Amino acid sequence: MLFNSIDFLLFFLVVTTAYFALPHKFRWLLLLISSCYFYAAFVPIYILILFVTIVIDYYAGIFIEKAPAHYKKRILLISILANVGILMFFKYYNFFIDNINSASSYFGANFSFPLLSIILPIGLSFHTFQAMSYTIEVYRGNQKAEKHFGIYALYVMFYPQLVAGPIERPQNVLHQFHEKKRFDAEKLWVGLRLMLWGLFKKVVIADRLSLLVDRLFENPGEYNSPLLIVGAVFFAIQIYCDFSGYSDMAIGAAKTMGFELMTNFNRPYFASNIKAFWDRWHISLSTWFRDYVYIPLGGNRVNEYRLYLNFFIVFILSGFWHGANWTFIVWGSLHAIYVLLNMFIVKRFDWFGLKDNMMFKFAGWIFTFCLVVFAWIFFRASSMDNAMEYISSLFANIYMPLQLKLPQVADELGFGYMSYGISVFSILILVLVELKVQPRFENNFVLKKDVVFSSVILLLVMFFGVFQKSSFIYFQF
Amino acid sequence: MKYIYRIFAVLVIFVFFSSMLYLLLNNGLKNYSFNTTSKFYEMFVDDEAYDVLYLGTSRTFQNIDVQICDSITGRKNYNLGMGGAGGFEILSVFKAFLQVHPTPKNVVLNFDRNILDTLRGFHNPIPYFNHLNNDEVNKTLKEKGYPVWFYKNVPFTRVVEFNDDTRNNCIRGLLGKKDSHNKGYHGFLPNYEKIGKFDTVYKTKTMIGHSKGNFRYVDSIVEICQKQGINLIFVVSPVYKKHFSKRYLDYDLIMGKVKTEYNQGKGIPILFFDTLPLNFNKSYFADNIHLNRIGTTQFSIVLSQKIMEVLK
């Protein structure tokens, strides 16, 4: 069930109303059943996989807490292996087999392992990581094992963040399911406003930009350089609006019932260096890797070269987490290189003494944005060949006739002047809101003119939205 | 309570401005697409009686000049062809038309590949939303998954079906501009210019589909005509240099099936116009499958003369 559908609107209204109508002791059950329904609306059978991981991690948590110290680690390992095993099988099996088969044929060996025709369960990487954070935190003693099976299942399955995060930590969420939530009109208002803003980002910006971006990435060789540059920039904005739009809707939907989920984005494209970008982009995943990979690898308490290696490992894993394709590994590696260069410059030259200079900051922002956009080409491309074709056309097709303004291209791409106009207009609104308004409404600050703001956004969604029931990009991960 | 008032205020503002904006945009769209507006009025509001009804796609709508047909046959002809339609839409429009008009004596089905395409829904559903009081329009839109209740009772929700082209046309209409692609609706919509490329090389041939399922909309039209005592005639209209035969692997097989099952089996007359000399003269065509204004005049004359022999 997609957040940008009539089905979800009805589902949300029914669940939220029923949540406050029911006595506290039945509310977990309502949320669990509705979360099962929400998930089963995609591919029903895959709820069984979710059930298996829930059962394993629920008992792992209890056993870890009870077991003597020397057994705790073994149980944790079993739990992690089970989670990673499921993830590896469904997400990475075909990738590894395909690469082994290609390598074997390259070296002249005539064996080939069979590929499986499996569909990746929706949001598998998200709920697997969330489940793992629970057992790790119980092992570390930061979280007590949850005894109530239903509440634990709800921790993994809570419908707003089930399929695309934010990837929550047990300390932040589990206790909230035990608390009696009273109806709070302010939270309802703030939650609805956040959902509306997320919907605006998704249907007005992301889904419109995707009309052009999808066509450009299909056959990049046919288009000229300026159009391909526009396509790459549009994808950067599309993926931000798509994913942060989903996060806003998830956080907003949870907030209407009184639940607080962690912030996932903090205006990442305003970052003036790449490290700052990563402090603001997909925060729940970045902090997951920081807490469960980077720190166990030694964190900052290692020598300089080991530190660089640790960062590299984290970024490669982060890339690989997104998908079983070399394009994601290259994307992760590029960001690793960016971050390492950033660290190197800071360490050796301390920003050349210009850290607080406005012009330097502005140049840093432009440079960071360009680096991020370039890396997104790999992320969006369907294969390495596709990515290389896009990049080579971007440089090689500079002498092709300018296509951006030609009406026949508008017809051919289904993206005419009106689409460009609405795109630019809505991106300007996005920038204005992110600069002036969002810092306040994320902190629950009620704006003086919020009725006007919300009405205008709702009208823009209605009249400028692209309602093709298109899925969210991050659902595939 | 102030937050509940705020939610309520947002909803009231939203509903008010949406309704106003929709009225404005819909007027703009009606004004811009004046051809479509007139045609849909004739089809689903007007109750005029016709003797001959032409069913089909753009190859009917743009290729048959009913004013020529009227003058030659001495009957009242109506062109019910729908641009971009498939079998589902052709059948739906036919049924909806019958709801408001007296039953015609003759129906001419211009037979082409689209009528066998079972995947096509409504090519452009937006003009239909202005006619949701027609039960058949209502039913068929619902069948295709459109939230008809909302579109009928809360008209501004129809804007979710608009794409950027439609939005553009709304604004053009509000600025007083008209659809310039064609020069006006005269009971049909002629092509004055070249509208597409002429294919000369056929690298890849595809299939249309010739199973019983592909013929289900044709069978439904045949059944309605039989039940209502309408004289049904099949017509195969001109196409540049046997384009369909060259483009589709099973086109000739389909035509063979039409002859044996519908002509010989059910006694439905078929008139072939795809072998006339005009089929080989590029100056009569706007693209491979659509005639231009001159071709339409020529074809309408030949069609009217020929069809007289089988009209009731």
The SS-based structural class of chain B is alpha/beta
Radius of gyration of chain A: 23 Å
Separate helix tally of chain A: 18
Pair of chains with the largest interface and how many residues each contributes: A-B, 26 and 25 residues
Shape of chain A: globular
Total beta-strand segments of chain B:
5
CATH-defined superfamily of chain B? SGNH hydrolase
Calculate the mean pLDDT score of chain B and round it.
Answer: 87
Distance between the termini of chain B: 72 Å
Q: Report the order of strands and helices of chain A.
A: HHHHHHHHHHHHHHHHHH
What is the makeup of the main sheet of chain B? 5 strands, parallel
Number of domains of chain B: 1
How is this structure best described in words?
The complex is a heterodimer of chains A (477) and B (312). Chain A has two domains: 6-180, no CATH class; 187-476, no CATH class. Chain A is built from 18 helices and no strands. Chain A has helices spanning 6-21, 24-40, 47-66, 69-106, 124-140, 149-157, 170-178, 185-218, 225-256, 274-280, 283-294, 304-322, 326-349, 358-380, 384-396, 407-413, 417-441, 450-464. The radius of gyration of chain A is 23 Å and the shape is globular. Chain A starts with 5 loop residues before the first helix and ends in a 13-residue tail after the last helix. By secondary structure, chain B is α/β, with parallel strands linked by helices. Chain B has a single domain (49-145, 181-307), classed as SGNH hydrolase (Rossmann fold), CATH 3.40.50. Chain B has a five-stranded parallel beta sheet. In chain B, α1 (2-32) crosses α2 (34-44) and α4 (66-73) runs parallel beside α12 (293-307). The longest helix of chain B has 31 residues, at 2-32. The A-B interface holds A 6, 185-186, 188-189, 192, 208, 414-419, 422, 450-451, 454-455, 458-459, 462-467 and B 1-4, 6-7, 9-10, 13-14, 17-18, 21, 25, 147, 156, 159-161, 163-165, 167-168, 171.
